[in-house]
Here is the input.
Amino acid sequence: MGNSFHLQDLLLLVCCLIAGGLLAWLLYGKTKSLSPKLRLFLACVRGLGLALILWLLCAPLVKRISYILEKPVIVLAQDNSLSVGHIEPPGFVKKKYEQDLKQLADQLGDAYDVRVYNFSDHIATGFDFSNKGKLTNATALIDKLNDEFLNRNVGAVILATDGIFNRGGNPVYAVNKLKAPVYTIALGDTIPKRDVLVANVNYNNMVYLGNDFTVDVQLQAFESKGEPLTLSVFEGAGKVHEQKIIIDANTYVKNIQIKLKAGKLGFRSYRVVLSPLKNEVSTQNNAQNFVVEVIDDRQKVLIAAAGPHPDLAVLKQAIETNKHFEVKTILNKDLDVVNINDYGLVILYQLPDQQFKAAPLISKLQASKRPVWYILGAQTDFAAFNRLQQQVRFNSSNDRLQEITPIINADFTTFELNETFKKNIQSYDPLQIPYGQLNVNGVALTMLNQKQANLPLWFFMSSGELKSCYIIGEGLWRWKLTEARNNLPEMLNQLVMQSVQYLTVKDDKRKFKVYPSKMSLDENESVVLNASLYNDNYEPVNTPDVVVKIRNEGGKIFNFTFSRSEKAYLLDAGLLPPGTYAYFAETSMGGRKYTAEGVFFVNPLFAEYQQTTANHQLLYTISAQTGGKMYTPENLKDLFSELKSKETIKTLSFEDLKYEELINFKWLFVLILALLSTEWFVRKRNGLR
Here is the structure.
């Protein structure tokens, strides 16, 4: 470490010394009672002390230079996943390997800064050879090392693994971020073992009650040619499918489609199982679980009209883009016998009509309390329409039509409108609207306005929990032609579908709700439950305690109490073993008891058993790509020699430059005090004041 001054600071010091000398000479220049030598001594002491005080008052900056030595960092990362501990090659002695790896770390620690990590589905510091990790994510390790050692003197990274990575992507594409050679230690066995496994299961996670659904199962088999297999599918404890398979190759891959029937509502848990083979290396990968949600039949939408119209086909086509909805169009006298209770939404297209009043349908609709979408046009009987509902009144004395251009209402927030639609809405052909006076009684959620009259064109209203929609005009088919003519996305379909979803969704008015953050979790994920409680004004509260019982398949019950968040509740139940769990939560407020219940699933992780053959080619690629080498567990001494001889792995010296004010140097105060004290003592001894 050293200090230095700028030239101007040195000039300032000289000036301070001259000034201090002059002041001292004014005091001692005519003091005849002292000998010349003593007078000179006291003048020098006084002058130097005054000069230092003047210099401090000017507060010059001092450049301080220090040198920091940084040892090269050697990162040693050990794979702690199941696959490493599960498959060991012939001649491999795990205990000896562990001792050799620790010895390597100790030897390197004499000259380098050695950092040890173990990784699998999570990353930890230090050695851990338990090999209990359910996954292997080398990319996450690389990202962590890159964050921790960015701009550090990293000499090398030693990666001990089998090359089987099943989370986070291929590390080959991320390893260059380390900017250091990666030396790999090749673990595991590259010789294929006798094994059969369920490699993958593809399925729709939502199916309809009573419908068949397809499950695509991919099977793989190694070194098992000629062996018979039994593929079974279980729903709970009951077997719902079984078939026989003959393995016809040493490396066997086959996709099998299985049809299952959704027989019960709710979340249903299934398990695909392969019968084990004799001397199979692992039976842990012979099964996979999956969960589907079985929902009730599609919501049914009724489009009712007096007669055919191009708009009817547009509406039907748009709604049927969503597989959760089933649309039926009924015309004329067939409306008299329709059962309104079969439908979750009724679209009245220009009904009541001037010729066909549809009185039976209207009477049923008024009694059913169903959401209704009204579309008015030239054939609408406005007097009957005004009697049918009280929220919108339209007074028209003739059937003449006017063309109205739609514009977006910027204040509409009921649902999100597509930006493309917003930009192009005024290029759409106008709708045809009857001449008349429109009055809206109540709060209207207006999506589109009439450009010419600044009145609602397409809007929503509600009465209690019952929602309704109104389009004042006809000609939606023109918008379809506009989209085709101008090569625009099919925004009308999306607009109609969003309107239908808003009308049919049922508000959840329960005062107490409990729900898991995820219905289906992996066994390495924490089980998190959320809860919310509302008072009579439907304001969130979290004053009362909320308790929950979680029961596993064996009937064992785990009791928990929720923690409070801002205005809700949260429970982190931690990790739970694989299985199906039911929960029952309860609380009390205002003398009333509230309960909520549900289920969730914890799925076992088999990823580490899906591949049992080590991938040493990948390790070789990583090492070659970064300038390192691949070693076997028996050659760790060679790895040590390689690192010690590597000239690029060396200690670096960094210059640390700082500027400090002179006033921060305490020794100057000590020097000034010593000088002035010496002067005072000598003066007193010689009888001077």
About this structure: The two ends are 43 Å apart (CA to CA). Residues 210 and 262 are 5 Å apart (CA to CA). The mean pLDDT is 87. The chain has five domains: 2-67+657-685, 72-191+613-650, 195-295, 299-504, 512-603.
